[in-house]
Specification:
By secondary structure, the protein is α+β, with helices and mostly antiparallel strands. It folds into 2 domains: 122 residues, Small Protein B, Chain: A (Beta Barrel); 31 residues. The chain contains 4 helices and 9 strands. The strands form 2 sheets. Strands 1-8-9-2-7-5-4 form a 7-stranded antiparallel beta sheet. A two-stranded antiparallel ribbon has the order 3-6.
Length: 157
Amino acid sequence: MGEEKTVAQNRKARHEYSIEDSFEAGIALTGTEIKSIRAGKASLADSYARIERGEAWLIGANIAPWDTGNRYNHEPKRQRKLLLHRSEILALLTKTKAKGLTLVPLKMYINQRGRAKLEIGLGRGKQLHDRRRDIADRDSRREMDRDIADANRGRQR
């Protein structure tokens, strides 16, 4: 089919959480949901994942109703089951319970076979000073890259 196509990204996730590990999960979808995702009408803003009764769930993700859908169209913000192996679910459950980590959806994409996949991260919430440090590091890295690029071009500041 080709290469993977990113449909939605949770941009705030890497800003608000330090991601320690990531997993790939399938998503159980209805027919109109996969059509909307392939059309790029999905959003992961304010979404999270949770493990309940031995199953993983995606909560708060918005998949817009399909334009030409009829009465069988889906609810935009319904809970969707994540398809993971039992061992992966148990590993995620133990890490979230013991270490105080959170399951954060990072990216939704269509893989080479045409299946909708979700990249989930195990994240620890950042404090305000951690966020400020990340911003300062990013700014200093940009400044150094600019200086190197200017030096390569023969300019001086």
